[in-house]
Design a protein that fits this description.
This protein is α+β, with helices and mostly antiparallel strands. 36% of the residues lie in helices and 13% in strands. It has a four-stranded antiparallel sheet, with no helix packed on it. The longest helix has 21 residues. It binds zinc ion (ZN).
Length: 116
């Protein structure tokens, strides 16, 4: 089991690669409970690179206000898009009875705790 940064909620050490009964890979985040099925080997490319790039971007975000504004703005725009197009209100994991994993480090918009 290799835990990686979740490409969806950006939590550190939260995403695990698992294999289904037919040995097809999929991702499960123990914090946001997203399950993402990788239907081709091409999808593994992103799995290999994205967690490292996300971690680097989160680190860069701590020290560069302009980058932080862009980063947070992109998240905000996407949340607005999803909320505007979703047929139902967003369902949070706790409403489904799923407990958030305590060892995962959730992404926080607050940079004061980890900024250098
Ligand atoms: Zn997640």
């Amino acid at each position: 089991m290799i835990l990686r940064t979740c490409m969806f909620c950006l939590a550190e050490n939260a995403c695990e690669v698992r294999f289904d009964k037919k040995a097809r890979p999929y991702l499960v985040c123990k914090l946001c409970h997203t399950r993402c099925f990788l239907r081709s080997l091409e999808a593994v490319r992103g799995l290999a690179i994205c967690p490292t790039l996300i971690a680097a971007a989160i680190e860069r975000r701590k020290g560069e206000p302009a980058f932080r504004a862009w980063f947070d703005g992109e998240i905000g725009k996407t949340i607005t898009f999803v909320n505007a197009n979703a047929l139902t209100p967003p369902v949070r994991a706790e409403h489904l009875g799923l407990a958030a994993e305590k060892t995962a480090v959730p992404f926080s918009f607050d940079v004061s705790s980890g900024a250098t």
